[in-house]
Design a protein that fits this description.
Blueprint lengths: L35 H13 L2 H13 L5 H13 L3 H14 L4 H13 L3 H17 L7 H13 L4 H15 L4 H13 L3 H14 L4 H11 L4 H14 L4 H13 L3 H14 L4 H13 L3 H11 L7 H13 L3 H14 L4 H13 L3 H14 L4 H13 L3 E4 L3 E5 L4 H23 L7 E6 L2 H9 L9 E3 L3 E5 L11 H18 L5 H15 L9 H8 L19 H22 L1 H12 L4 H8 L3 H17 L12 H6 L2 H6 L4 H13 L3 H14 L9 H11 L3 H12 L6 H13 L3 H12 L7 H12 L3 H12 L6 H14 L4 H12 L4 H20 L14
Parallel strand pairs: 2-3, 3-5
Antiparallel strand pairs: 1-2, 4-5
Helix pairs in contact: 1-2, 1-3, 2-3, 3-4, 3-5, 4-5, 5-6, 6-7, 7-8, 8-9, 9-10, 9-11, 10-11, 11-12, 12-13, 13-14, 13-15, 14-15, 15-16, 15-17, 17-18, 17-19, 18-19, 19-20, 20-21, 22-24, 24-25, 24-28, 25-27, 26-30, 27-28, 28-29, 33-34, 33-35, 34-35, 35-36, 36-37, 37-38, 37-39, 38-39, ...
Length: 869
């Protein structure tokens, strides 16, 4: 395939290439010159970041009339790395005169022209490549030329899959030792958000070039969205090989900004500017930092420096806006995307980011329209495709509203618990808004997704879900439905309460609050609303606090970015909550509210804390003592020393004798008794554990194990007592709630049945079991309306015995004089034709209808037609 013919216009208009994307494409191409050894040294200087030496050597070689085009390619690239954009342009102009048919020179020239603001010339250079390769395809068969043609085709909108096959794969075959083919292939995957493919490509490249910083950086980019720890590992490897590797420094700076480590981010950007004082992305990040510090003058100056050589570069404003949006400053981020589109109305990254910003701001009409535009322009843009598909799915949702909230749910789920969602949100609004003294300025939109992939797309732009139950953007909340949480669904009421607290605090602070404080307040308010919600101290958290697991308050937001395990991430939420509880206990809620108000004016968090409580260093010291004191209150009579794994595995009786109150050994000993079916023996360690640590929750806690022992021994009253204790302290103990309903129904303890049915529904309202028990309890208590609603909902969930449900519902409706009773009894008979009670009820309904019909007076005879007098 040559480039002169028309491209497939349904293909993507790709992003502007990143700063390292336009690497010299002939860095490892075969050489036919006498200065091969010296040229190889200069190649390596460029790769290893010795840009000054590289530039001098190229200048000398050119002065010495070295023939190879590569001297000039490397020299231009070194000038770009150093920010000497005008020098690069001068060398490019001279080089094009000497090598008028070079496609590699023109592609590099495209970046040089852009860096100098000559966008028209940049476009012309791409067209020239197209014409040259189309007219003389046989002349451009080297690996470097294949890659140059492929990158050009991407910039002109060709199909990326065809480019991989027809150019980059050919480059690998033409020269398996050509690193540029791996870099180019990996770039395509990154641009299309296919991070798994990118990881495979860069890993393949590193097998051939294990010390290559650009390949290490590519792998860091592939890991960035999902595994920051791996990302940091590969950034470190890249910087080990090239301490001046600007893209790696920029990715590290971005990570530090995400973690609110702004001082450290500035130091990294200082390193970038020692290499390239005009690096535009570095100035964009400085503008972000200035914006977050409420320094408009410095922000404007940083932006101007980023645009110094190319004053209409859309990437600068796009990057500033993107980072602000990632700080939940969606309105400010959207404003920057509009500035980027003012420079280039077709700049796809800004369009799709603006679409997402508007959707998160609740400006859905414009947001969906923009997403559709991007998709029509670039059918391969993964985010745009995902959003357009999501829009089609959302169109099938049902909307419920009461003025303060707009709730969107699947048409199947809305009739089941939609009104409960509205009631819960109303209660949260009344409680939290009054507590924090705020009036919301607009309705809150809540979207609940039965498919995790749809939640992921709406929330992150991608179908993957990194463990979130819900996310709040300010006026918009997205949440996973219990249907999407296979295995062990969380309490959806707690999730929505938590997210609504974000609505309040984000509006109070105008979205200017650190993540740790936002999450900490939401967990704090969960527990204020219901002590079983949120997170509580547990043995794992105790171990982290008593060890080295506490993160300093000033760095707590970063703990959400690079957790070693899921436990570490959950602990970041718990520690954030604990800090808020500490501040409220020691300084009062009013001071916390004052901190939020100051954040809304742009005051830095540490200054706001110091103003209303104490300096941050004192806060960190006092909080650590507070946390340790709280940890020590967990089972204070228990021995918390952790046994060696071998001792724990064997539940060593001798070790237990020496440590009779050790939590881990007691629990392990009990579990071994249960496995051996020694139910009576298991009760002793379990009762000891519960007595010493009565707040145990979570899987395999002592309550669950002790209830099992009582059940096996037929001790029903004791089993009920133990499960009731657990249900009072745990928000999602579905098995306990179900068993309590069963036991209470057997003894006709209908109050307990109703209580645990409601608890069950707060976790999973999509199963028929709790509705059956709720209906029975309501019937027994004479609450016909509640029983009818329970049976009606139950029938929406495909219950195991629909005939019985229809019959009971029909009987209740008939007793209330509702004519729908006949339809339901007929449905019962349709399910079970020999259902005798249903036949009797049908006859009773018919007799009642006949009696009613006889009691009705006959209608008066209509007048005969005649003439008017």
């Amino acid at each position: 395939m040559h480039l002169a013919g028309p491209f497939d216009r349904s293909a993507a208009l790709f992003f502007a290439l990143p700063c390292r994307a336009l690497l010299v494409f002939a860095l490892l191409a075969p050489l036919r010159c006498v200065a091969a050894a010296e040229l190889e040294d200069v190649r390596q200087q460029l790769i290893n970041g010795q840009y000054e030496e590289c530039a001098r050597n190229c200048q000398q070689a050119i002065a010495d009339q070295e023939y190879s085009e590569e001297w000039r390619l490397i020299g231009i690239q070194a000038a770009l790395e150093l920010g000497r954009y005008t020098n690069a342009m001068e060398l490019l102009t001279a080089s094009l005169e000497r090598y008028p048919s070079s496609v590699q020179m023109r592609l590099l020239g495209h970046e040089v022209a852009q860096r100098n603001g000559e966008t028209e010339r940049a476009a012309v250079l791409l067209q020239e490549i197209n014409l040259l390769a189309g007219a003389r395809p046989w002349a451009y068969r080297s690996a470097a030329d294949f890659v140059a043609q492929g990158r050009t085709a991407l910039l002109l909108g060709a199909d990326p899959r065809k480019i991989l096959e027809q150019y980059f794969d050919k480059a690998k075959k033409a020269d398996p030792q050509f690193r540029g083919a791996y870099l180019a292939s990996g770039d395509i995957a990154l641009q299309k958000n296919d991070y798994d493919l990118a990881s495979k490509i860069f890993t393949e490249g590193l097998k051939k070039f294990p010390d290559d910083p650009d390949l290490h950086f590519g792998l860091a980019q592939a890991y960035a969205p999902g595994d920051r720890r791996q990302m940091l590992l590969f950034i470190d490897k890249a910087l080990t090989q090239n301490t001046n590797h600007v893209p790696s420094h920029l990715l590290l700076a971005e990570h530090l900004i995400d973690g609110e480590e702004y001082g450290a981010a500035r130091k990294v950007l200082d390193k970038v500017h020692t290499v390239n004082p005009w690096q535009p992305n570095a100035w964009a990040f400085r503008a972000v930092l200035s914006h977050l510090a409420n320094d408009a003058k410095a922000e404007s100056e940083a932006r101007a420096n980023g645009l110094k050589f190319w004053n209409s570069d859309p990437q600068v404003d796009h990057l500033i806006g993107k980072k602000l949006s990632q700080k939940y400053r969606f309105a400010e981020g959207a404003a920057y995307q509009r500035r980027a589109l003012g420079f280039n109305k077709q700049y796809a990254p800004a369009k799709i980011q603006l679409a997402q910003d508007l959707l998160r701001l609740g400006e859905e009409g414009d947001g969906w329209q923009l997403a559709d535009e991007v998709y029509r322009d670039d059918g391969y843009d993964v985010t745009a495709y995902n959003l357009v598909t999501l829009h089609d799915n959302l169109a099938k949702f049902q909307t419920l509203t009461n003025g303060d909230f707009i709730v969107r749910m699947s048409a199947k789920e809305a009739p089941i618990y939609g009104q409960k969602v509205l009631a819960l949100l109303d209660r949260a609004k009344s409680n939290v808004c009054a507590k924090y003294g705020i009036e919301l300025d607009r309705p809150t939109t809540v979207e609940i997704f039965p498919e995790q992939k749809d939640f992921g797309v709406r929330t992150f732009g991608m179908p993957g879900n990194p463990g979130y139950l819900g996310v709040c953007f300010g006026p918009v909340i997205t949440a996973n439905s219990p249907a999407s949480q296979a295995g062990h669904p969380a309490n959806w009421q707690a999730v929505l309460w938590h997210e609504f607290c974000h609505v309040v605090t984000l509006q109070m602070t105008k979205n200017k609050m650190p993540r740790w404080l936002s999450e900490g307040i939401s967990v704090f308010e969960e527990r204020q609303a219901n002590p079983t919600w949120g997170q509580a101290m547990n043995p794992k958290y105790r171990e982290l606090i008593m060890g080295e697991g506490l993160t300093p308050v000033s760095k707590l937001s970063a703990a959400f970015l690079t957790p070693k395990t899921d436990l570490d991430l959950q602990f970041a939420y718990y520690e954030s909550y604990l800090v808020v509880e500490f501040l409220v206990e020691k300084f009062g809620l009013d001071n916390l509210k004052q901190i939020l108000q100051d954040l809304g004016t742009g005051e830095p968090i540490n200054d706001a804390i110091a103003k209303h409580t104490a300096p941050i260093n004192e806060i960190e010291t006092d909080f650590a003592e507070f946390a340790r004191a709280r940890a020590k209150k967990l089972g204070p009579s228990l021995d918390w020393k952790k046994p060696e794994p071998a001792q724990l595995l064997k539940a060593d009786p001798q070790w237990l004798a020496e440590h009779p109150s050790n939590f881990y050994i007691l629990l392990r000993h009990a579990q071994k008794f249960l496995r051996d079916k020694k139910w009576q023996e298991a009760k002793t360690p379990l009762e000891k554990l519960i007595s010493a640590y009565p707040d145990q929750t979570g899987p395999d806690n002592a309550y669950i194990l002790l209830a099992e022992a009582h059940r096996r021994l037929g001790e029903t009253n004791d089993e009920t007592r133990v499960l009731a204790s657990l249900s009072d302290i745990e928000a999602d103990a579905l098995d306990a709630y179900a068993r309590l309903m069963e036991l209470a129904a057997a003894t006709k303890d209908w109050g307990t049945v109703s209580t645990n049915a409601e608890r069950y529904l707060a976790v999973n309202p999509l199963l028929p079991l709790p509705y059956r028990f709720l209906a029975q309890a309501a019937e027994a208590g004479g609450q016909a309306r509640t029983a009818i609603e329970a049976y009606e909902t139950m029938l929406l969930l495909d219950p195991p015995d629909p005939a019985e449900a229809h019959f009971r519902l029909a009987r209740l409706l008939h007793e209330g004089g509702d004519p729908k009773a006949k339809r339901h009894v007929l449905q019962a008979l349709e399910e079970a034709p020999r259902f005798r009670d249903a036949h009797r009820l049908l006859m009773e309904i018919r007799r009642a209808q006949q009696t009613e019909s006889k009691a009705q007076p006959l209608p008066a005879s209509p007048p005969k037609p005649g003439r008017f007098e």
